[in-house]
Amino acid sequence: MVRYIEYKKMFFRKIKKEKNKYYISKLNKRVSNKLFKKLKKEKINKIVCDKYIMENNQFLNYLYAKQLYIYNGRKLYKYIIKNILNYLKQFNIKLEKLNVAILVNENLQINNKIIEEASGIFKRISIITNNSKKFLKLENKLEEEGIPINISNNKRKSLSKTDIIINIDFPNELINKFNINTKAIIINIEEKIKIKNKTFKGININYYQINFEDKFLEYENFDKNIIYESMFFDIDIKNKFNIDKLKIKNLIGNNGIISVEEIKNIAII
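User: That's the sequence. What structure does it adopt?
Assistant: Structure tokens below.
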């Protein structure tokens, strides 16, 4: 169960509830405490905040301090990598002829699923990790299926000739220690990454927009990706969602929406 938190100017009330949504008129510690008490009374520990609240880090930190889980679209990101790759394919990017490197340290089930899906798409696959022993079982499984895979942590060479980089959980400071192909397409999942190398001319994807058309109109002040994420991971309604049918509307980089021209330029390099 989840509750949706929306900022709304109110003259006489700090907090008001309507159905599954709480409206709050102030973003301060006092309001966060009152909100938490109401959520606790309902036994709610997962929330979705509107765009305005998501830009207020101080207020979000008040909520995090209460051990509340705030959906942010990153958890869903891991489940739609294939959708993003399909979006890239429409621009004549021939994935089956390219090399992919997956940057990952945590041996989680969903991370392994990303690796296995990628192994069936790309020409060659590499895993870049600081915990190579954790992925030996997966390496053996893929090799038994006839899929060669390389596990490495060579910062100098491992990404210098890689076409596609799927960065699952490497932080900004670590990925920037690598010698990255200046024409690579990078998909960053767990956090926003900025490539510091000024010679980098590739595409750095930090987020996504799903094409929902007219869905979720009652949540117009929210990031619709996050609305979908909260519903997708709701155990009571999860089976109603077919994630394979989701269509990517836009990819988001450091400076906003990545234009079609940018993607097409990469496709012909």
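The longest strand covers residues 248-253.
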